[in-house]
UniProtKB/TrEMBL annotation:
One example GO MF annotation: nucleotide binding
Record-given protein name: Gfo/Idh/MocA family oxidoreductase
PANTHER family (alphabetical): BINDING ROSSMANN FOLD OXIDOREDUCTASE, PUTATIVE (AFU_ORTHOLOGUE AFUA_2G10240)-RELATED (PTHR42840:SF3), NAD(P)-BINDING ROSSMANN-FOLD SUPERFAMILY PROTEIN-RELATED (PTHR42840)
One Pfam family per UniProt: GFO_IDH_MocA_C3
Keywords, comma-separated and alphabetical: Oxidoreductase
Annotated ranges, domain GFO/IDH/MocA-like oxidoreductase: 135-250
Family statement drawn from the similarity comment of this UniProt entry: Belongs to the Gfo/Idh/MocA family.
Length: 395
């Protein structure tokens, strides 16, 4: 597959590092940047035969099969429109839109053009995430009750992120999009998110958007997705997920503690990891960042999906649902109430309700708890199915 990159900034380089890694057969052939100088530098660094400061020229290049959008948030819509017009498959970075309405337009454009719209949600492709999701789907932790995801760091690296109009929001739209989609995967993408409660504040930076937020997304089956996001966190980039199930638990630490600890007096000039704040003292580097952040598995799924004419695991539809949840989070932060998630085009299940599945002990009783005491005694706590009486039974 031949790929064009739109943008030459931070994420464009992460993507290019992934696309150029491990002797991949899918290759970058062109790059667009509004500055010819930066386009040329990017093309030189990655050995691309073509570069331009004209977006339509890059998208329309007949050598290009698929376009990757790595531009600031306010440019995603116009870039998707250009790709759809040119009949090119398009992979767009997160967040898909600044709002659900923008994301819906993008989704409809690719669907009308008959091209694939892949949502580049890398954190739903990390090796740890993929394995834990497979365990959840295999039933290893039972019924998912709560899925929490946290992304916090000291704030983004470019000016436009801090401009509410260009970015569409603060930490919620920037980081919450990852956390929401992680929880949604664990809970089940066919389960409808119904309402959101969110607290958001601007605690540290002189900006119009929030730099810190917590939120709860309630799903139709009664499960809760929780997001914790901040641009105020000091000490690196904290990416952690937690899933509580009726039969088990998963804790993931994706970045700040991966089992690689290093001490340096600060000698040398080493890059440690994304958003690491220091290169001296005790450090927590990340072995193969591009792989551990999910980029390799993400692009493999995207190109396989194009070849196999199927949807990728993360599609524009997923990006749209995430944007709708974020819209509700912003409404809730303002109103201080649970706010409904408005999804005009819901494609998942509509037959799900908040059911309770209690474990039966026998025909008469439910099992509440089985306990072993320090002296070795065993007992059961049971509830009678009709009278509701709670009783103890020693074993
Ligand atoms: N993990 C992830 O998936 C991840 C991480 C970081 C950023 N992102 C996303 O990637 C996108 C780009 O972020 P970034 O971190 O690379 O930012 P960046 O500032 O490093 O790069 C932005 C790119 O957009 C270009 N650009 C900005 N304004 C422009 C304009 N008016 N006209 C033409 N080009 C313009 C810049 O020149 C640059 O090439 C954002 O949507 C961001 O949310 C995703």
């Amino acid at each position: 597959m031949k790929i064009a990159m739109l943008g030459s900034g931070f994420i464009a380089r992460f993507y290019a590092d992934s696309l150029a890694a491990q002797r991949r057969k899918d290759i970058l052939v062109s790059v667009y940047s509004r500055s010819t100088e930066r386009a040329e530098k990017f093309a030189k660094d990655y050995g691309l035969p073509h570069f331009s400061n004209n977006l339509d020229e890059v998208v329309g290049n007949p050598d290009v099969d698929v376009v990757v959008i790595a531009l600031s948030n306010e440019l995603h819509l116009a870039a998707v429109e250009a790709c759809a017009k040119a009949g090119k498959h398009v992979l767009c970075t997160k967040p898909l839109g600044r709002t659900g309405a923008e994301a819906k337009q993008m989704m409809e454009m690719v669907e009308k053009a008959g091209v694939m719209g892949g949502y580049l949600e890398d954190l739903c492709y990390t090796p740890k995430f993929l394995k834990s999701l497979a365990s959840v789907k295999a039933g290893s932790i039972g019924r998912v009750l709560w899925a929490k995801s946290r992304e916090t760091h000291p704030g983004p690296h470019s000016d436009w992120f801090w401009n509410l109009e260009l970015s569409g929001g603060g930490a919620i739209v920037d980081l919450g999009c990852h956390c929401i989609e992680i929880s949604r995967n664990f809970i089940g993408k066919d389960i409808k998110p119904v309402e959101v409660m969110c607290w958001a504040a601007t605690q540290v930076h002189p900006i119009a958007a929030e730099d810190h937020a917590l939120g709860w997304v309630k799903y139709a089956n009664g499960t809760i997705g929780q997001f914790e996001v901040s641009w105020c966190f000091r000490g690196g980039m904290d990416l952690r997920d937690e899933v509580m199930g009726s039969e088990g638990t998963i804790w993931l630490n994706n970045f700040l503690r991966t089992g690689f600890d290093m001490f340096s007096t600060g000698k040398g000039n080493n890059y440690v990891a994304e958003k690491a704040e220091s290169s001296s003292g005790w450090l927590f580097p990340v072995g193969d960042e591009v792989n551990e952040l999910g980029y390799n598995h993400m692009f493999t799924d995207m190109f396989d999906a194009i070849e196999q004419k199927r949807e990728p695991s993360e599609s524009f539809y997923d990006g749209y649902v995430v944007n709708c949840i974020i819209d509700a989070a912003y409404r809730s932060a303002k109103s201080r109430n649970w706010e409904p998630v408005q999804i005009d085009d819901w494609r998942g299940r509509t037959d799900v309700t908040e059911g309770h599945e209690f474990a039966s002990y026998d025909d008469e009783f439910y099992l509440i708890k089985e306990e072993i005491l320090p002296n070795g005694e065993k007992k059961l706590i049971l509830k009678h199915k009709t009278t509701g009486e709670v009783v103890r039974r020693d074993l």
